[in-house]
Each structure stands twice: as structure tokens, then as C-alpha cells.
């Protein structure tokens, strides 16, 4: 039985935005609301949702790169939100992150060697220079970069190679958990596959646990064991990959899946589509009750009353919809 | 079988950029036609030349660019036109939609005025009538509460809504050709589906030809009649959408299709294309794809394969294309992973 590595309990992150005038009260934006889930050692959790749903804020909050407003982050039995800065810095060697824009996330004035060794200096200050260099060269090889490139600068690299540098930096401290925030979205299609495969093989080799944040459902399906779907900062569905894709319990998940393009003209022409109308509402002023009800094809009056709890709809599979049985009865979403 | 006269025909069309590092051969010897009412998807990765090709057609290239060849639209060569002539053709007969709608919208101008201006300038319609027409078009592209929205500024609208405004603007003069460059790439998937539905309806209703420039083969599959695949500034394959996906002829196309994960498949891995995109200043000898092609042979390294018909209605630039025996072409190569 795999061990629970991370347990998120009722996590909320609220941003205060300045009011419209100088004296107006600040406006609250609930980017993440009351999110709870656990993560087992060695698994990959995919977090999906549209822009503004809070997926990046969630990823950063659980590493305390953004300070959460409420809730607990229990990492190997310790609540990270209670750690002092020094203790947190120590804990960070186990926790890492990979960003979307590979070139922008690298300091242009540092060469590759310096960029990759930076987290190592913080995590293991006692390491000698030679040993650090050896570790850097080792991870460069692991991510498919020739160690001779160690003195080059970020601008000399293509997007795919720059992302390899970002990955090398993320794994150099031999972390246990890596949050991957849209790690392939800025890359060309043919390069995306290289990076996805690299992440998957590193995960195998190093026994990593991954949180994979992406708006691209097809990439998420390829890498994840479990899927978490966010809408306006709340979990609307969480469950095993195959279950969530084939037989979702939330109408939003179903709509997302039916809108995802499929590179097969015959299927693309014949598939049933749940067309969603309009745009997601503003997180500053979310609808009462279920936040999805304003775009939901099966919403009823009762949906406006209170945010629906997460119902158990299958084994290890939960969805926040009062009418989840109806959604499930619709049958296969995508094969 | 007679084909109608093309609406747009590029022949031996090339674009070069003079840079301090050398000449970038962005687009080379392109032959491409778009028939009236046809939806053509132009697919490629960054640096393939897909966007530059049509920026050139619209006269939107940077100053260090040089175009050659012909770009004939409704019988007239756009490259030989004066700026003034080009201005009347653009907007009036052909329109362009970009990835970022804000590049096409003036942030300081109400939607109403931007849309009406298109008509008052190009069609000499009176202001009042132009605004009425603009409102009608906003409704047609599915903007809710169009009466209220038309009085707003671009920043008050969401990304999807802005893209609808830009499409409305492009449609106002009833162009025969719309070129849309990654029009849904910046949008969320549910909004992308709405915009693609809109394009589908508009092309079938009004008979407008559409060139859709994209890197996303999923988008292509749902909307295109014909697909043109570009690599390193050249067309490497052209085929009907069903043919292309079922039986790609060029190894690059086949590899591209295999490299994308699918939302409707359980899979543990995808097959990436190795190597890196080509250097356009010093492109590889022979076939530009040969350093990344697992079928490459000596000839591929020495000689560049011409874009030739491999069977009726499809062209490929490959010395060893995958084609069916029945079509009478060269023998098919062994393919490990079926498309």
C-alpha cells in the first residue's frame, strides 16, 4: 500500500485586490476555495481547468510560494504552513517546481551550470565545488543535455532545451515532489512529446511524485494517474484517470472533454458535443451555490442554493454535482 | 473533373529576411491554391513559415523582408500592387484574424466605432447604417447582449468575446477569403470550440474561403477540407483532411500525428520526433527533415525532394513517400506504428 506523501486540507488562497477608489474596501478574490486532496508516493495527479480556475495558484500555494490564507498542507506528517522560514527552506529540497515558460524562468545572466546548481547551494551548503559540479553534470545527462553545454547561457538554447534546463534545476536536489505548471504548453508539438516522455522516465527512475498542471486534457491523460478538475477555485471532480475521462460525474468535466479537439476527422465530425455557452464567471463575484450553474446544461433551481459537496460517484472518484447520477448515466464521454 | 479557378494562388512564392547573422530563408518556392469556399488548414511548427507566408500575402512583413514569386488573388498579383491597391483588397475582399485579438482592436475606441469604420472606409456606407450593420454582425457571431456590448471598449470584454468582435470585423465587408492565424490558441478549450463552430457556420453559410494557420492537428481535423503541412519554409505534404490523417505520405506528417497525445486514448507514452527544428539560416542539405527522419537515406541528404503528386489530389515532398500499392506509386515503406 503506497504511503500518503502529501495531504491538503481545506486549503484556501484569497487575494485582496484594491477597490475601485482609494477609500473603497478591498475586493476579495478567492483563487482557491476549500480544496482538500491527498497524494500518494509515486503517483501523478493531473490538475485541469480553464484559465483563471486557480490551478497555478493551487500549485504554488501548496509549496508556499504563494502564502495560502487558510488550511493545512501536511507533508510527510508535518504541517508546512506552521514551519518557520528556515525550516521551510530545509523542507524545500524535497519540493520542486517546473514552470511554463522555460526561457523566461531562467536567469539570462547565469550560465547553465550556475542555474542548475543554485538550489543545491541552498539545500546542501556543505557540498564542495567539485562535488556540486559533478552533481550538475549528472543531472544534465539525465535530462538529455550534453555536459559540455554547462558554460552556455539560456538564450543559446531552444525552448525544448531550455525546459530541459528547468527540469535539471528541479531535480538536482533529488526532490520527492515536483509541481509541473504547464511544462509543455509553450513548446512545439514535436518537442512536447520529448519533454513529456522525459518527465515520465525521470519519475520512474527517481521515484518522483508529480503534480501536473495543464489546460491540455490530452497531455494530462497521458501523464496522470488521477485527475483533479477545478472550476473557479473549487474541486468539481477528482478521481482515477480512466474513470474521469470515460465516465465523468460532473457536467463541467463532460463539457471540457467534449470540447477537446481529437486529431481524427471522422471522430471530430461525428462526436456528440456539449457546447458550453458563454465564459466562466468572474472569481471576484462568483455565482451563488454551484459556481458552474450559469453555464451548466442541466442546472436547476436547487443548484443556486449552496455549493454542492463532493459526492462519492465511484471507487476513489468524487464529483461536486447534485445530479451526478444523471451525468454518469449519459455514458462514455471520450473513449 | 474541372476545378474552379482558385481564389488565391501562390506560385514560386518566397520570403527572405536579411539579418545580421545571414539571410533567413523563411519561405521557399511555395505553390499553394485556395479555392472559393474551401477551408485550408496550414499546419506547421514554429519557424515552418506558415504565418510569414500569409503575412506576406497581406503585405504585413517586417521591413527587412523580401518577397518573390506570385500571389494571385482573384486574378491580380498582390505582390505587384501599389500600397493603395492593396489597401482596397485587404479588408474589402480578404481579411485576417490573429491569435491575439488585441492586435486588431484599438483599445481606445468603442467596439461600435471600430466596426463601423470598416464599412465607412471600405464600402462608403453612412455611419448610422454602418453601426446598424455592425450590430447585426455582432449578433451573428454570437455576442450576447450585443446592444450593450457595442458601446463598450475592448478591455471590457473577455478574450473569447474579443475574438468574436475581430471575426465580426473581418466579416463585415463580406470578404471572399479569411485568413485566421492561430485564432483559438490563446483561448480556453470550451471557448475554442465555440469559435471553431462559428467559423464552420460562417464558411458554409456565406461560402467564404478560410485559411486556418495552426499548430494543432486536433483543430485541423474538425474543420479543414484540405491540409497543407509546412516544414522549414516549404510545403512537405498536401492532402484532403481524411487522407492526411488516415494515410500520411510524408514521414514528418506521420511522425507529427503519432507524437500528439489524444484525449480519447489510454496510452502510456507517445512517440516523439527526435532532434530539433531546423536552422533556417543554414538549413540541412537535401530534405530539410532528413536529420530527424528515421527513414532517411543517402539521397535524402544529397537532393531535395520536389513537391509532387503521389496520387490524385495529394502531393508530398519525399523521395520515399508512404503510398498505397493500388495507387500505382512507389512501394510502401514498412511502417511500425500504424497511423
UniProtKB/TrEMBL annotation, chain B:
Segments crossing the lipid bilayer: none
Subcellular location: Cell inner membrane
Domain ABC transporter: 8-257
Main location: membrane
Keyword set, alphabetical order: ATP-binding, Cell membrane, Membrane, Nucleotide-binding, Transport
Family: Belongs to the ABC transporter superfamily.
Name this protein carries in UniProt: ABC transporter ATP-binding protein
Organism, scientific name: Jiella sonneratiae
Amino acid at each position: 500500500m503506497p504511503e500518503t506523501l502529501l495531504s491538503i486540507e481545506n486549503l484556501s488562497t484569497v487575494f485582496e485586490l484594491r477597490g475601485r477608489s482609494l477609500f473603497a474596501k478591498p475586493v476579495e478574490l478567492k483563487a482557491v476555495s476549500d480544496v482538500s486532496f491527498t497524494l500518494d508516493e509515486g503517483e501523478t495527479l493531473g490538475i485541469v481547468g480553464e484559465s483563471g480556475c486557480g490551478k497555478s495558484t493551487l500549485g504554488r500555494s501548496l509549496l508556499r510560494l504563494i502564502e495560502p490564507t487558510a488550511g493545512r498542507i501536511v507533508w510527510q506528517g508535518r504541517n508546512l504552513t506552521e514551519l518557520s522560514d528556515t525550516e521551510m527552506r530545509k523542507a524545500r529540497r524535497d519540493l520542486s517546481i517546473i514552470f511554463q515558460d522555460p526561457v523566461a524562468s531562467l536567469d539570462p545572466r547565469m550560465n547553465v551550470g550556475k542555474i542548475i546548481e543554485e538550489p543545491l547551494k541552498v539545500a546542501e551548503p556543505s557540498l564542495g565545488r567539485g562535488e556540486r559540479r559533478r552533481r550538475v553534470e549528472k543531472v544534465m545527462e539525465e535530462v538529455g543535455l550534453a555536459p559540455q553545454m554547462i558554460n552556455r547561457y539560456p538564450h543559446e538554447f531552444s525552448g525544448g532545451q531550455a525546459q530541459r534546463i528547468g527540469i535539471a534545476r528541479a531535480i538536482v536536489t533529488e526532490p520527492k515532489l515536483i509541481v509541473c505548471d504547464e511544462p509543455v504548453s509553450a513548446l512545439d508539438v514535436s518537442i512536447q512529446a520529448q519533454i513529456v516522455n522525459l518527465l515520465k522516465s525521470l519519475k520512474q527512475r527517481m521515484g518522483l511524485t508529480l503534480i501536473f498542471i495543464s489546460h491540455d486534457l490530452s497531455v494530462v491523460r497521458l501523464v496522470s494517474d488521477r485527475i483533479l478538475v477545478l472550476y473557479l477555485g473549487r474541486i468539481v471532480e477528482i478521481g482515477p484517470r480512466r474513470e474521469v475521462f470515460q465516465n465523468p460525474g460532473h457536467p463541467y468535466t463532460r463539457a471540457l472533454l467534449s470540447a477537446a479537439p481529437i486529431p481524427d476527422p471522422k471522430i471530430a465530425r461525428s462526436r456528440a458535443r456539449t457546447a458550453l455557452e458563454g465564459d466562466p464567471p468572474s472569481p471576484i463575484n462568483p455565482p451563488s451555490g454551484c459556481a458552474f450553474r450559469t453555464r451548466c446544461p442541466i442546472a436547476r433551481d436547487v443548484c443556486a442554493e449552496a455549493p454542492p459537496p463532493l459526492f462519492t460517484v465511484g471507487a476513489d472518484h468524487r464529483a461536486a454535482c447534485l445530479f451526478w447520477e444523471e451525468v454518469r448515466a449519459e455514458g462514455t464521454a471520450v473513449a | 473533373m474541372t476545378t474552379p479557378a482558385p481564389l488565391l494562388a501562390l506560385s514560386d512564392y518566397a520570403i527572405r529576411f536579411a539579418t545580421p547573422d545571414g539571410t533567413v530563408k523563411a519561405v521557399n518556392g511555395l505553390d499553394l491554391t485556395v479555392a472559393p469556399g474551401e477551408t485550408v488548414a496550414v499546419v506547421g511548427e514554429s519557424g515552418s513559415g506558415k504565418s510569414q507566408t500569409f503575412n506576406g500575402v497581406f503585405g504585413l512583413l517586417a521591413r527587412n523582408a523580401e518577397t518573390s514569386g506570385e500571389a494571385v488573388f482573384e486574378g491580380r498579383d498582390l505582390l505587384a500592387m501599389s500600397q493603395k491597391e492593396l489597401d482596397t483588397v485587404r479588408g474589402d475582399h480578404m481579411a485576417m484574424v490573429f491569435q491575439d485579438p488585441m492586435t486588431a482592436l484599438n483599445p481606445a475606441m468603442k467596439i461600435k466605432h471600430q466596426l463601423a469604420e470598416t464599412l465607412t472606409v471600405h464600402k462608403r456606407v453612412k455611419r448610422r447604417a454602418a453601426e446598424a450593420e455592425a450590430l447585426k454582425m455582432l449578433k451573428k457571431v454570437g455576442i450576447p447582449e450585443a446592444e450593450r456590448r457595442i458601446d463598450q471598449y475592448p478591455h471590457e470584454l473577455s478574450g473569447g468575446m474579443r475574438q468574436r468582435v475581430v471575426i465580426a470585423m473581418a466579416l463585415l465587408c463580406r470578404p471572399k477569403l479569411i485568413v485566421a492565424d492561430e485564432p483559438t490558441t490563446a483561448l480556453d478549450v470550451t471557448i475554442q470550440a465555440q469559435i471553431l463552430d462559428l467559423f464552420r457556420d460562417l464558411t458554409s453559410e456565406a461560402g467564404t474561403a478560410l485559411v486556418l494557420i495552426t499548430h494543432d492537428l486536433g483543430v485541423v481535423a474538425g474543420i479543414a477540407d484540405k491540409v497543407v503541412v509546412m516544414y522549414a519554409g516549404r510545403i512537405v505534404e498536401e492532402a484532403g483532411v481524411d487522407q492526411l490523417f488516415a494515410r500520411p505520405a510524408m514521414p514528418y506528417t506521420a511522425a507529427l500525428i503519432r507524437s500528439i497525445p489524444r484525449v480519447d486514448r489510454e496510452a502510456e507514452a507517445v512517440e516523439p520526433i527526435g532532434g530539433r527544428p531546423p536552422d533556417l539560416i543554414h538549413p540541412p542539405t537535401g530534405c530539410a527533415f532528413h536529420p530527424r527522419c528515421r527513414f532517411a537515406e543517402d539521397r535524402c541528404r544529397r537532393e531535395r525532394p520536389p513537391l509532387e503528386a503521389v496520387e490524385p489530389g495529394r502531393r508530398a515532398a519525399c523521395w520515399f513517400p508512404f503510398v498505397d500499392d493500388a495507387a500505382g506509386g512507389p512501394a510502401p515503406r514498412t511502417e511500425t506504428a500504424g497511423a
